[in-house]
Amino acid sequence: MKISSKKNCNVEIISYYTGYVILCISLLMIIPIIVSIFFNEWNATLDFIISISVSFIIGLSMIIFGKNIKESKPKVQWKHGFVISSLSWIILMVLFAIPYRLSSHTNSLLDGCFDVMSGLTTSGIILIQDIDHLSNALNMWRHILTFIGGQGMIVLALTLLVKNTNGAYKMYVGEGKDIELVPNVKGTARIIWKISMIYLAIGTAALWINGIIIGLKPISALFHALYIFASAWSTGGFAPNTQNIMYYHSISFETIAMIIFIVGSFNFGLHYAIWQGNKKEIFKNIEIQSFLVTSFLACTFAAIGLAKLNVYPDFISKFRRIIFNVLSAHTTTGFTSIYARQFALEWGDFGILIMVLAMLIGGSACSTAGGFKGLRVGIVFKGLIMDIKKLLSSEKNMKVYKYHHIKDTILEDGAIKSSSLIIICYIVTFTIGTLIGVYYGYPLASAAFESASATGNVGLTIGVTSPSMPVVLKVYYIIAMYLGRLEFLSVFALIGYVAGGIKKLCSNALKH
């Protein structure tokens, strides 16, 4: 009886908090409903009313199912926090795909789920069709998803729902974030949103003014500015037009967007430290140092490789086509200033290899970016240097090695090991995706490029991602985006929890 009671308690905790996350995040559908009414898009209004109704029913049902925990107030454990985070993402992916499917701009619910997961994970690869003729409401919804996904759905839920810190930090870490800006995790979540909203105002204003200057009408310029900022800041890569950033034909617009997505790829802890007056942090931080080195090397090698092919002869074209795309890949943004097939036809195998490496390395930890993260790359590199120095030093001269990330931290074997394990998980996920792509007949370079984009939550495409690609590849890319965004651990916890439940059911069935 005790085991059964404990099991029920676990299920109720997960159901209760997952229901609240679903309820909270589903409220965001009110925004596209308002937009659809403003633009007289009545079909879209109905689509989102249906979607929000279904989401509310499911969210409330899960809360009611777990309501008993309000009286017993059980302690939320790490396994609960991780499962709540990973399960919320899966359920919300399906619920948020409903307006996609009802709009008739996707061939199936799976294609809608693909685009939603791409948005929430700030990946940016898409299966939605006829993007130039989407309703304003659905376009708004796409960019809300990528903006919310960048900051984190659990982060948003925590700012509104949690009245105490019981279990909050465990859910927060379960979404791939582990930095505490202030002692209270709810306060940390609010600071993250405060930072993002201030940048939203500044970035949207800059893009809006630039949009008017290059010829967009004021209202159109405002929506384009909002959409591009949401995607740039969240390193998401979504755009309201098929041509992506090329639509604007403006080096100034591209430059502003590039500044935003570079800043957006930095750690929220770094933003907060600078805002607190610690400006030296930007030069001392291991992630910034790692990013500067890898960005410089990636841009330099790409430029050298493409110079050999004589693709982009002058500096302006090199800046707009090489540097922009390499930094878009490295920050895992996914904005592109060339057509997808140009990577395959013009960049050559060496250029594609540089892009694959940049996409896998990614941006900063606890930011909107994906990939290995600069922090882990820096820690592993410093760990390698530390081991070499230890081998060359006598035992009497052993010293303590440190790295600087917001504060000085002792470089321990545990940190090196955990960073290495996550990097290995990314590499394994990328390799499997590449193998599946090759199995279905895509060239090795193209399969590797697309797999790196999905695994690193980037969004650049070489032409593999399309509504006609194999279902197995669609499902795997969804899994790769999901694993990459939540950084594996919370997903593994969900798999372990489900597997444990199935094992118990089978065991009980055999006993009876």
What descriptive keywords fit this protein?
512 residues; mainly alpha; 24 helices; two-stranded antiparallel sheet
Give the helix tally.
24
The structural class is mainly alpha
N- to C-terminal distance = 16 Å
Radius of gyration: 23 Å
DSSP strand (E) fraction? under 5%
Largest sheet: 2 strands, antiparallel
Strand order of the largest sheet: 1-2
Percent in helix: over 70%
Query: How many β-strands, per DSSP?
Result: 2
Give unreliable regions as ranges. none
Mean pLDDT: 85
Query: Judging from the principal axes of the Cα atoms, what is the shape?
Result: globular
Order of secondary-structure elements: HHHHHHHHHHHHHHHHHHHHEEHHHH
Indicate the topology.
Elements lengths: L1 H25 L3 H9 L3 H24 L3 H4 L5 H19 L1 H5 L6 H12 L15 H16 L1 H9 L6 H7 L10 H29 L4 H16 L17 H14 L3 H8 L5 H4 L1 H24 L5 H16 L9 H7 L1 H14 L12 H19 L9 E4 L1 E4 L2 H27 L4 H12 L15 H16 L2 H23 L1
